[in-house]
Amino acid sequence: MAQDWLTQPHPVVVIGGSSGSIEVLLTLLPGLRSPLRSALIVVVHRRNTADSTLSELLALRTRIPLKEVDEKEPVEAGVIYLAPADYHLLIETDFTFSLDDSEKINYTRPAIDVTFESAAAVYGPWLTGILVSGANADGVNGLLAIRQAGGRALVQKPETALVDFMPQQAVQQQAFDQLVDVDDMIAYINSL
Amino acid sequence: MISTEELNLLLTDLLDWYGYDFTHYSRASLTRRVDRLWNLEKFPSFAELRYRVRSDATYAQRFVEGITVNVTEMFRDPSFYLALRNDVLPTLTAKPFIRIWHAGCSTGEEVYSMAILLRETGLLYKSLLYATDLNPEVLDRARSGIFPMAPLRQYAESYRLAGGTRDFSDYYTAHYGYAKFSEDLGEKMVFSTHNLVSDSSFNEFDLILCRNVLIYFDKLLQEHVLTLFDRSVGPLGYLALGSKETLKFSSLQPRYKQLNNEKIWRKIG
């Protein structure tokens, strides 16, 4: 893919998680500075229905604009984006979102790997992937792709995760630059 | 991973050699699809992948099927089907004849869902369901009315949430992991290849369904296809899209009225 990082004006953070990840977000979001200088993309495994409850729940925890992604929408700094239920979320080289309803990956749609890998190809060193609590190995390959493309991979310290399987998998596969707790994530994102 | 330049070469080949125009498809998704096939077939290099596509028409057809997304299900988004049942079909009952177009129908699960709705509202006998896709192979599967058993339990639940009151299993017979849907549902279906990129309008319809197809197109192609639908929807007819697709920002918007919160628009102008 053609990379044109010089025209890319802001850092991007993608957070992925499964069971126990909502709890992480509910603590993380209130700690984030507003306005946010990066774009924050949230990919969590959720029920297979197109309900808006999750975005409403998360929006209550922050003054930063938070929305479920619309297809073709540009990725902008200062916004928190939530991957819609039942679609994979990808990023185009012109820094817009696109959606894909192809086969589930790792038994799930949206799959964290899909967004991590797609964002890694587009953002390279501008990208940070954070993998948190979950009971599935989704996201680990994506973290490897992010690191390979020059981005940064943070993983929730397994002992602080409600469900430690997902972060544990990342640790086993050496798919991280740093192990962090939620306070570290807040400090890191605020420093971008 | 395939590079942008390599992908462009492949897309040009598919257009020049086989007439399939994917140049206005969203690249992020296409890149993943092509990578998947490349890994699956274990081509040692891009050159070999390209050579195979160019030189082997049978493989090229499979390749086209592989890069397009053919995932579909029955009664996906039950509230959408509930709206069809309660708000759309009742407005068509007075018509002597009902024409419906499923554009990009893939393996046909949505067409069968629609036939069940029409049957239950007493309209199937005077309806005709045109189901089109660019892949002939998926149309063969759709035509057979045979679907894998595994997801049927979920379909039955979606059917119920979509207002279905019968026993869903009355509509099919199970054989060796497959469900064969009853043939009278299929009698009113016409399956045909049609490419939304290059083929034109072929009839006037009371309802067009094209769900989760436009997400794979760039904005230019979306507008082109929506214009094609606009020319194919009769007065006071309906256009239905996928749950993340919209007429908003398109040139059709001023002449269409959205039904409640569903992705169903009625042509009013």
UniProtKB/TrEMBL annotation, chain A:
It catalyses: [protein]-L-glutamate 5-O-methyl ester + H2O = L-glutamyl-[protein] + methanol + H(+). One of its GO terms (molecular function) is phosphorelay response regulator activity. One of its GO terms (cellular component) is cytoplasm. One of its GO terms (biological process) is chemotaxis. The active site is at 18, 45, 138. InterPro entries: CheB_C, Sig_transdc_resp-reg_Me-estase. Its EC number is 3.1.1.61. This is protein-glutamate methylesterase. It comes from Spirosoma oryzae.
Automatic annotation (TrEMBL), chain B:
Residues 1-247 form the CheR-type methyltransferase domain. The keyword Ion transport does not apply. PANTHER family: CHEMOTAXIS PROTEIN, CHEMOTAXIS PROTEIN METHYLTRANSFERASE. GO terms for molecular function: S-adenosylmethionine-dependent methyltransferase activity. This is Chemotaxis protein methyltransferase CheR. It comes from the Bacteria. GO terms for biological process: methylation. The keyword Transferase applies. SMART domains: MeTrc (SM00138). The lineage of its organism: Bacteria, Pseudomonadati, Bacteroidota, Cytophagia, Cytophagales. Keywords: Methyltransferase, Transferase.
